[in-house]
Prior knowledge:
Layout: H1 8-11, E1 44-48, H2 54-68, E2 72-76, H3 82-90, E3 98-101, H4 104-109, H5 121-125, E4 132-135, E5 138-143, E6 147-154, H6 155-162, H7 178-190, H8 192-199, E7 205-207, H9 218-224, H10 226-236, H11 252-264, H12 280-285, E8 289-295, H13 299-303, E9 316-319, E10 330-335, E11 339-342, H14 348-363, H15 365-374, H16 393-403, E12 407-409, H17 419-434, H18 440-458, H19 460-463
Parallel strand pairs: 1-2, 7-8, 10-12
Antiparallel strand pairs: 3-11, 4-5, 5-11, 6-8, 6-9, 6-10
Amino acid sequence: xxxxIVSALMVAAMVVxxxxxxxxxxxxxxxxxxxxxxxxxxxxxxxxxxxxxDEAWQDLAxxxxxxxxxxxxxxxxxxGQYNTTLQSEMAKSDAPTIFNVGNSSxxxxxxxxxxxxxxxxxxxxxxxxxxxxxxxxxxxxxxNCYECYGLIYNKTIxxxxxxxxxxxxxxxxxxxxxxxxxxxxxxINSRIDDINKELGTDLTEAFASAGLDDGSxxxxxxxLANMPLYYEFKDDGCDLTAGEESIKGTYLDNFKNVWDMxxxxxxxxxxxxxxxxxxxxxxxxxxxxxxxxxxxxxxxxLTNEENGYAVTADDLSMMPIYFGVDDENEGLCxxxxxxxxxxxxxxxxxxxxxxxxxNWVITSDEGRDAITNQMGLTAxxxxxxxxxxxxxxxxxxxxxxxxDGKTSVAWSFNATPNVDDWRADVVSxxxxxxxxxGEWDAVKTAFVDGWANQxxxxxxxxxx
Length: 464
């Protein structure tokens, strides 16, 4: 049977009796048959958040029904229409039993509908317990996939450097804090010619250029700025991704230390960082730089042969952005907007069936293959090993750090108020400082005072 994605326009015309599912041509019910091994007499209805994964979810639903006899339906909302579709479907008598919660604000909105998952098999298999949304003293939702960012590095070159006489470290594993990272970067940047001669490389710098143009500045006003936000939110005990209305800038000196390292250990002229003429991806891809701050989404372009880069998948790995705060426990910056929630207002039979289905997805060969190899996602569960481990080297590094007990850094930048305006002011001050035309205090002001001002503007409607 041919599968079809149900668009938002079709949603209003359909009465669906399963979890967020787009029905097959079998009239919205999955095939019954195969070994009926489920312990539950309930049914599953999944409202899928990602249109590009619809076909894989439809196939999984059919396979599970064939194996267990449990009815599983998957409705996929049209791109950009998830919240509208969710509101419509939740108002029906047969509402989704699985739905997506993107953040704490959404968890608040749907608080009455989120089942506490703290005792679920899903939670037990989660490798990093920070990848949940906690709300109202319950585990309201659990991440089904994630993205990560940190310091991408060329491990072939870095390992070669470690074997050279006079190297600051003898193993990459020794780079586990900011002070050591800076010493290594400083040393590499001062010995470019020696390294190229001994290793046959084409290095020009330790760090790829830290561009402050519109196409690159988000890496620093967003992703690097995340670090001081994360540690301050953590100190204050507030929600790490919802943030707070005012910040003190407690860790902005740490931000400065990392930024200064990026600039001083690069070949780029500090006065040209906002020119738009720099291409950090190309610099790293051509083997001209050892380090490059970016995320796991860079794995595909860096390893795409059509891009003509010198690096291969075997050259690539990622380490945390060591910030000089809690380096010994720090993992990569890990986040997502994709969290599974289970409908607490469903019948207990349907809740039990839903929990069994989700556990099957993350433990069965069919489920794990679909998540990793068909959907191309990175799942944060200890069951995704061997053939089902992500092929993305950066995500593999994140998983290894989680397994080793390191704490992933939350995406606290998601709390940024009026994000474009706040970042623009930070970038402007950072550009002037880096070019020698402004003081660091101006960066602090843009960061701290700008946050309070933009928060007030962003939450004016709430105050009224």
